[in-house]
Design brief:
Blueprint (H helix, E strand, L loop, with lengths): L1 H14 L5 H26 L13 H27 L3 H8 L2 H12 L2 E3 L1 H18 L7 H23 L1 H4 L4 H19 L1 H5 L8 H29 L1 H6 L4 H13 L5 H19 L2 E3 L5
Antiparallel strand pairs: 1-2
Length: about 290
């Protein structure tokens, strides 16, 4: 998941050269929803693993929770994430999105669904410091990027609420099923809102590489990674799963080094070491989970 999302920032950002951000996002959500619907249908037939299928019936209460999860975690989150990334730098985006573990840990503590110990907090903060060392020098606040930065902050909050909202559903339903149904609902609302942006797309001018980027982002960044995320939430809890998202800037740094030959100096290596140490500390800290979700 960290590898996929860590490479997704630059891929999505570069695709905006030929596709309007919201049109790109509408297309990838439509594709991702189709893939998830097909995967869910296959899982119901094969019943291969409880990550992909559970026999529990979707109750009216489940549908209500799935509906607001789709609106918050797919429609609103995607609008804010893509719109924000289009208006700010990759460094700003990576730094802001990296605050997700702290927001999720705070919500987990306030809701009393999970009670992280001191080591978890220490590890999370150490990782955040490492992320700042890796990407913070490239981040900057300006009037030009402020709107995009604020949109990304809103996206972080949406993602945290979306993650916490699945706690009850994860007790009875599969990560694939929850992701597929909430994504379908979110896309059904999001896509019509982007009709004007889609109508303005110069289809003949969109190159094959941009289409490949869209397919990669849809299938891997949405379908595969969302399912992995919720599999992690069900297995180890929201706050502990969120800590692994701190690895995203490290992946982005390594990707830039391998593909773009961007240098990695001792400062960035030190920052990467802090991130990894923080993840290790947070993972090993004491942790108590309760059964009463938000």
């Amino acid at each position: 998941m960290a590898v996929i999302w860590g490479t997704n920032y630059a891929i999505v950002k570069s695709a905006f050269r030929q596709l309007d951000p919201q049109a790109f996002n509408a297309l990838r959500m439509l594709l991702a929803s189709a893939v998830m619907a097909a995967a869910s249908a296959i899982a119901q037939r094969t019943r291969f693993h409880d990550i992909f299928h559970t026999p529990a019936r979707v109750t009216p209460a489940d549908w209500r929770r799935l509906a607001w999860m789709g609106l918050v975690g797919h429609c609103l989150y995607q609008y804010l994430f893509v719109g924000g990334l289009a208006q700010t730098s990759v460094a700003n985006g990576a730094l802001i999105i990296s605050s997700t573990p702290i927001v999720i840990t705070l919500l987990s503590s306030f809701s009393r669904h999970e009670r992280p110990g001191a080591l978890h907090w220490v590890g999370t903060l150490v990782s955040l410091l490492g992320i700042y060392v890796v990407v913070g020098r490239g981040a900057h606040v300006s009037v030009a990027s402020l709107h995009g930065d604020l949109m990304l902050m809103g996206a972080v909050l949406c993602w945290a609420v979306y993650t916490m909202g699945a706690s009850t559903l994860m007790e009875r339903h599969s990560p694939l099923g929850v992701t597929a149904l909430s994504m379908l609902i979110g896309t059904a609302v999001y896509a019509p809102l982007c009709a004007a942006a889609l109508a303005r797309v110069p289809w003949a001018a969109v190159g094959a590489i941009t289409w490949l980027k869209l397919v990669y982002s849809a299938v891997f960044a949405l379908c595969v990674s969302y399912t992995i995320w919720y599999a992690g939430v069900r297995a180890i809890g929201s706050a502990r799963t969120a800590v692994y998202s701190n690895l995203l800037p490290i992946v982005a740094m390594l990707t830039a080094f391998l593909w773009l030959r961007e240098p990695i100096g001792p400062v960035k290596l030190a920052g990467a070491a802090l991130v990894l140490a923080g993840v290790a500390v947070a993972r090993g800290g004491s942790f108590r989970r309760t059964m009463d979700g938000p």
